[in-house]
Amino acid sequence: MPRRRGASTAPRVLGLGGGAGSGKTTLAEGLVEALSAQVLHLDDFNFQDGARGVFVTNAESGTRHLDLNHPASIDVGRLLAELDRLGQDGGVRTVIVEGHLALALPGLRARLDSSLFVDLPIDLCIVRKLVRKVGQGADAAVVARNYRQSGRPGHLLFVAPSRRHADIVLDGLLEPQELVQAALQQLAALGLISVTPPPG
Fold it and tell me: Which domain of life is it from (predicted)?
């Protein structure tokens, strides 16, 4: 259930989770525009020191890298400190924390006013991700290998189960604008925003 804010002047914090390729980032961009919100991308809070986090080793090359599909690879302390900073700033009314593991982090969930999950079958998620990565110049074989080694296990272990923590579950098959409007309508129904999306 969404957290009631009472008279608090702290920014409203929305968590946005779902599989990689489900449409979370596109939805976050639409909500930022509609709510004049600030977005924090969970990818920006991965551990970077080469020591903390969970690591996987490539069976072919032997290279070791951070497992971006494991909650323990996220510096939750730094993320919460950034939320505190935004709360003290006073100029931000809504913060959206976006990432495929957003609802899999208990420390973050405790700070959320509401949580959203974009639901899309895992096979469609990987197709979308593959198309996007290849379009950005990635090697399709590398993307597929990373998916088998880390992406799929992480989705099944952490991302998919985090759906149960969502106040709002959205259909990832919706067109982007429909997805944004569905989110706004449901947030308004929960009394979390006063914005009414335009018809059509």
Answer: Bacteria
